Structures are given as C-alpha cells and as structure tokens.
C-alpha cells in the first residue's frame, strides 16, 4: 500500500519540539543516537558500555602511541624497510624463541641473520648496506622468516607485513619479495591523491582478474586500458575493487586473505596498480577497496596464521578463533598489536596506493561472537545488544572509521557489508554509532532472486516489492543493488540468466524480432534495475558485466571444473557486438545514470514518497528527488491509457527516461515531446495528478521541468475531472479513500517512529 518512505530525510522532520529528541541529542556518552530512535532507549546501558570501551582504547593509544595518526603508521616501522644505511626488519612474534631472516640475499643461510628480541614480543634486525653502498637485499629477491619455537620447531614464514609475494612454480607456495624499485622504475603519480566524495555515489563493483574477455587472469594494465574507459562512459562515479589483498587460493574470490599488505601479484606489480588508480582519479572516479578484516586465511604456509607457532597470536584461541562456515581464522580485536596491524593496513592502502575508501567485508561476522551463523535477526533490538556482541570488534570499527574520516574527511567513504541490520552502524562515532558512511542493502537482491525463482509474473506482489526496497533505517545511508557478485556465484546465476536462461545462447540477435522470453527478460531486467536504483537507497551498485545482462554465472578455476577460466571472465564481446541485444541493456544502464545526473534521484537527504502500489494493476508509482515522478507497469499484458497518478508538484512534466524507447530495445510507444500538465485536484493523497499512458512491462520517469506558480494553479483548478470507467482507473477511484487513509496512517506511524 502507498505509505511514507520509512527513511524520510531529516530535513522533513521537525524535531525541534520533540521532548525525546531534546532529551538525548546532546549526550556525550554514546547515547546521542537514541535521539533519532526511541527503540534504542532500553539499550542505553549497552551503548554506554560500548562507547566507554572505545574511549578507553582511544585514550590508551593516545597516551602510549601519540594518537591514531601515529598508531596507524605501523608500516613505517614493521616489516622490511629500506633506509639510508641499509635494510631494517621488525616483526611481532611474542611466542617465538628465536627469529631469523634469510633468502636470496644470504644464500638461503637460515642462521646468519638473527633478529634481536625486544619488549612486547618484538624482534628487530638491521642489515647494513654493502661496501659499495648498495642495498644488502636487492630489489625483487625472495626473503623468508624462520621462527624457532620454544619446543625447537623451525617454521618458515613470510614476513607478516610483506608488501609483495610471488608464487613458487615448483612448490606452489608463496614467497615474500623485497620490493624496492629504483627511482626510474617507481610509479610517478600524475593526478590528485584522492577524489572528493561524489554527490551521487554510483559504484561499479569489479574484479581485475575477471576483467579480461579471454579465459585467463586479467591484469591491472589491461583493466586500466579496457575497463576504466567503459566505467566512465557508463556514468559510474566510483569503482569498488575486489581481491586486491594477496590470497593464495584464487577461487576464494579474494576473501581468504593470506598477506594483508601485499597486492595480488596475479594481476601485476604494485606500480601497475598505482597506475590504474591514478588513471581512475584522472577520470574523476573514486577507487574503493574491498577490504577483508573480518577473518583471514587458515593457510599457515603462506599467510599469518600460526605465524609464531601458536594459534592465538593474531586470532582468538580455539573455536572462538575459527569460522565454522568459512574455514578461516577470526581476529582477536582486543589485542593491541592486532589493532595496530589492521588500522595500519587501512592507512597503508590509502597512503601508498591512494585508495579513496573501503567496503568492509563480513561485518556481520565481526559484530557478533556467533558471526551471524544460524541467526535470523528478527526478534527485536535485543538481537543487537548483549553478550553475543563482540565489543572489541565494535571498538576496532569505531577507531577505524574515526581515523579515516578525521585524516581524509573530504574523500574517505566506508561501506559496511552487514546482513543483520545492526542499528547505529552508519551513525557517527561521536553519537555512539560505529561510524560507517553506508551499509549494503543485502536483502534487496535476495528478494529479486526469490521473486524470479518462485512467482509467475502475474503473481508479483507490488506491496512486497515496495516494502523490500524501502525497508531501511531512515537516518543511515544505504547502497542499493539488484545484484552483485554474490548472486552469480556457481550454484546460482545472473539475473539476466534467471530471466532468459538458455535462450540467451540462441535468440539475442538484434536483426530479428525478439522471442517472447527475450522480450520479457530484457524488459524486466531494465525495470528491476531502475526501481531498485530509484527506491532502494542513497547510492547504487552494479557488478561488472551485469549492466549489459551478462549470461550464466561466476565460477573460478578449481578442481571441480577442471581449473577452467571460462566463467571467471567478462564477455565484453557480447556488449560490444552491434548485432546482439546486449547493447540495449548497456545503453539502458548508461541512460539511468545520465538521468540521475540531470534530474537527481539517488542521493542522501532527498524527497521520497510512495504514491501507489496497486496489486490488481501491477503498477508502482513514487516521487523521488528533484521533482521526478516514477511509474512502473509490471503487468505482463495490460497497458493503461490516461492512468491517473497523484503527484506533489504542480506544473508541466516531460518524460526523461523510458524503458520502452527504441534506443533501449523498446517499442517506442511513449512520445517524449508530449507535455503533461498536472491537474489541480487531490488524488491518491497527493495534491495534484497526471494522466499517463503506461505500456505493459515498461517504466518511465517524468520530470516536472516547469513548476507552476500559485496563479497558474488557480487557472488549472476548475471542477474535478471524473474518473474514467476503464477497469484500471475505476479500481483506483474505488480505493482512493482507502489509499489516503493508509497514507495518513503511515504518516502517523512515521511520526511515532521519529519520537
């Protein structure tokens, strides 16, 4: 049913005389967030405790390390570093008996370079320059750390802060490489260090290794040349790059990280990644990194697991330190050096590689000691507060967000991948929140897959769709998306393949009339993406290739598929082939972004009002942004003429986006040159209305390009226009009073929720 969007922008709330808001808004103990959500009040003690632990850790860091700015520069002290006088090495290995460094530089002599033990489990080593002044460890040579345990076991390890690793073709293990290119080979930055936060965040989620059209691992250089220009042409304002941190197992999609400070060597060198980011910045595109701080690979031969011979150095001991579903290790966020390691990891990628921000993976696993396993999160706010919450992890995320936003206030964006719906996740740390800028709307793609799997077109529930798209916290920003990489992993398939399946192999020719399956699939693919884009959040995300309806699924090379790269690539040739229909979905994606840029409908703090969700007619209509009226006719066969739609704005309207346009594989039934004049009578609880033509399975955006003055409103008032006897307008007229009642009820409910 039509109802006010539950996240009405703050500008539309008058809280100045609200006693609840006034009682909490100035609190400095972590409970100021309660001012915006009265349901948090019973959990005030939990919020205070969380905030007190954050202040305690922050104060300790300030006293012992000089503050977060200095504390997060661990990469300047740890690992292998070239200095004026030689090479210095520092490692944290509290359970080690002895620590040695060896490699190509000393002929793989395991015992010639012993580290000195210092307090707090630190080990250091200084290797002076050679007599001729050159580095004692040459550039691009392999190095290893040997840990001697107290029971005299010798463990070969890669330095935990290693910045480059290469896979040994004989053993298939990874070896750390000393990376110190001569000045002539170092990448020279040419453009701004960071890109300012875009007004409209439109994210292109991508994987460099998958970026090739050929069945192979794509490179940073190829991505820079072939993919970035297409991202810019489509109109995206940011890329979110997956699988950057080194991971020994390619099929993990980059989520089983072995080496946190090293970039994936499969796709090239650090200098080539820097060139990619610099090129994106030249185009005005932000570069976000998919960072994995929720867990680490259990691989001890290549990664940091059991680095010093124990299972509790970086991670919790025993079962608490193991994720039962992911077969990975869980960080102990209460350890001082773990917090240094992770904060410095973020800072490293921003300072060394100029990443603009991060999408934090697996935040649900971080938030709770149960990691979200077997939880439905449907029992109320008690699910989010209590002994099941990992307070140390919450404190780490608060520190991380504060550090990033204080040091990089104009550019840094942080996004949380949380399926639990944790309140306060995206509220400022000063209020008692965790400090993220955005959260992912993870329920939306799941809803679309559920609909496509279970329901016939005529059984789609408009109210359920609208509810799923608008069901979010009004003062916490959300990134919406119809599908990401998750929905296409092996065992599932892309949305386009759900819609068109095997016919995508035979009936995608643009030289013939489309089959009923293809016509339906492309039409719904366009509609689903726009209704999600416009109604689902304050930012939008698309996974690489899905903008043109990529077929099939994603499957990385593994034993089960014969180590094939066939489904670990992107078929750009399909999108660029003028004889195939994929080009129309590509053009629609581009058209959506162009319309958003001109008319504004997916940004924070803008107007949103659901006007209509009609089950019988299968029509959804809503107002969004800068005088835009969206109409969607999901009916599979029924088109409507003179369909009356209420609107808030009086004036002249023109169509600015149309899924039925011939340029995007429609039938061209909407005439863009027609001016639609609003009628000065209430309809559907709105003060004015338009009468529109709604072709079946299409959507349009009408922009009020010329608002009326008060005098013009009087001119167009006149007597009420009677409803047409047609079925669709009759059904609307019959239910209009009820719709108004629901809208008023919804407004009252929204007011109660604000209080």
What does this 3D model show about the protein?
- The protein is an alpha/beta fold and 755 residues long.
- Helix content is 27%, strand content 20%.
- The protein has an 8-stranded parallel barrel with strand order 10-11-14-18-19-20-21-22.
- Residues 1-12 and 723-755 have low confidence and may be disordered.
Q: What labels describe this entry?
A:
single chain, 755 residues, alpha/beta, eight-stranded parallel β-barrel, six-stranded antiparallel beta sheet, 16 helices, 30 strands, disordered N terminus, disordered C terminus
Task: Give a short overview.
By secondary structure, the chain is of the alpha/beta class.
Query: Mean pLDDT, rounded to whole units?
Result: 92
Structural Rg: 28 Å
Euclidean distance between termini CA atoms: 23 Å
Count the DSSP helices.
16
Question: What does the main sheet amount to?
Answer: 8 strands, parallel, barrel
Q: What topology, given as strand order, has the largest sheet?
A: 10-11-14-18-19-20-21-22
* Percentage of residues in strands: 15-25%
Q: What is the chains' assembly state?
A: single chain
Strand segment count: 30
Determine the structural class based on helices, strands and strand pairing.
alpha/beta
Q: Can you tell me the residue ranges where pLDDT is under 50 for at least 5 consecutive residues?
A: 1-12, 723-755
Q: Give helix % range.
A: 25-40%
CA-based shape: globular
């Amino acid at each position: 049913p039509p109802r006010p969007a539950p996240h009405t922008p703050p500008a539309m709330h008058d809280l100045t005389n609200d006693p609840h808001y006034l009682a909490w808004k100035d609190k400095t103990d972590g409970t100021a967030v309660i001012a915006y959500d009265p349901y948090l009040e019973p959990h005030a003690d939990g919020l205070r405790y969380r905030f007190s632990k954050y202040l305690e850790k922050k104060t300790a860091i300030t006293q012992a390390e000089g503050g977060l700015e200095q504390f997060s520069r661990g990469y300047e002290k740890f690992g292998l570093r070239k200095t004026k006088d030689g090479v210095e090495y520092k490692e944290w290995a509290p359970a080690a008996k002895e620590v040695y460094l060896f490699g190509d530089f000393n002929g793989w002599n395991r015992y010639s370079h012993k580290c000195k033990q210092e307090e707090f489990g630190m080990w250091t080593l200084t290797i002076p320059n050679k007599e001729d002044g050159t580095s004692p460890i040459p550039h691009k040579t392999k190095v290893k750390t040997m840990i001697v345990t107290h029971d005299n076991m010798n463990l070969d390890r890669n330095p935990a802060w290693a910045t480059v690793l290469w896979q040994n073709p004989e053993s298939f293990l990874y070896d750390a490489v000393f990376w110190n290119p001569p000045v002539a080979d170092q990448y020279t930055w040419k453009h701004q260090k960071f890109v300012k936060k875009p007004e409209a965040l439109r994210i292109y989620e991508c994987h460099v290794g998958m970026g090739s059209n050929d069945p192979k691992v794509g490179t940073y250089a190829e991505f820079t040349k072939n993919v970035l220009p297409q991202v810019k042409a489509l109109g995206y304002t940011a890329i979110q790059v997956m699988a950057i941190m080194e991971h020994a197992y390619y099929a993990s999609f980059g989520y089983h990280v072995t080496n946190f400070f090293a970039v994936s060597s499969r796709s090239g060198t650090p200098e080539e990644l820097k060139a990619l980011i610099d090129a994106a910045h030249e185009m005005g595109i932000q570069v976000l990194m998919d960072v994995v701080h929720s867990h680490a690979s259990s691989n001890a031969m290549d990664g940091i697991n059991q680095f010093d011979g124990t299972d509790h150095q970086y991670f919790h001991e025993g079962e608490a330190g193991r994720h039962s579903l992911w077969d990975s290790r869980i960080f102990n966020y209460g350890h001082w050096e773990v917090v240094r390691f992770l904060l410095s990891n973020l800072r490293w990628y921003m300072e060394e590689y100029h990443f603009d921000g991060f999408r934090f993976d697996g935040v649900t696993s971080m938030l709770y000691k149960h990691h979200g396993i077997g939880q439905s999160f449907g029992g109320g706010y008690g699910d989010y507060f209590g002994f099941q919450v990992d307070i140390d992890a919450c404190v780490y995320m608060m520190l991380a967000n504060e550090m990033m936003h204080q040091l990089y206030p104009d550019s840094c964006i942080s996004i949380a991948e949380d399926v639990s719906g944790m309140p306060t996740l995206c509220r400022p740390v000063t209020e008692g929140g965790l400090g993220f800028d955005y959260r992912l709307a993870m329920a939306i793609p799941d809803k679309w897959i559920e609909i496509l799997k279970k329901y016939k077109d005529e059984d789609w529930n408009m109210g359920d769709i609208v509810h799923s798209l608008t069901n979010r916290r009004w003062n916490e920003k959300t990134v919406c998306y119809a599908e990401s990489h998750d929905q296409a992993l092996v065992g599932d398939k892309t949305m386009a393949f759900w819609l068109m399946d095997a016919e995508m192999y035979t009936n995608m020719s643009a030289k013939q009339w489309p089959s009923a399956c293809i016509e339906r699939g492309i039409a719904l693919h366009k509609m689903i993406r726009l209704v999600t884009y416009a109604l689902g959040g304050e930012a939008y995300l698309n996974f690489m290739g899905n903008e043109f309806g990529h077929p099939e699924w994603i499957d990385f090379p593994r034993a089960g598929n014969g180590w094939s790269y066939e489904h670990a690539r992107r078929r750009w040739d399909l999108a660029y082939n003028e004889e195939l229909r994929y080009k129309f979905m590509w053009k629609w994606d581009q058209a959506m972004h162009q319309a958003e840029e001109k008319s504004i409908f997916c940004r924070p703090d803008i107007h949103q009002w659901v006007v209509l969700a009609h089950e019988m007619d299968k029509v959804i209509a809503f107002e969004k942004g800068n005088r835009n009226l969206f109409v969607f006719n999901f009916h599979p066969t029924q088109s409507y003429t003179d369909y009356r739609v209420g609107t808030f704005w009086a004036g002249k309207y023109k169509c600015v986006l149309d899924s039925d346009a011939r340029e995007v594989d429609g039938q061209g039934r909407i005439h863009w040159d027609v001016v639609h004049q609003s009628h000065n009578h209430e309809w559907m609880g709105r003060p004015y209305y338009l009468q529109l033509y709604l072709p079946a399975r299409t959507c349009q955006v009408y922009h009020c390009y010329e608002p009326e003055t008060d005098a013009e409103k009087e001119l167009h008032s006149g007597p009420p226009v009677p409803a047409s006897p047609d079925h669709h307008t009759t059904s609307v007229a019959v239910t209009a009073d009820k719709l108004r009642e629901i809208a008023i009820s919804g407004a009252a409910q929204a007011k109660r929720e604000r209080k």
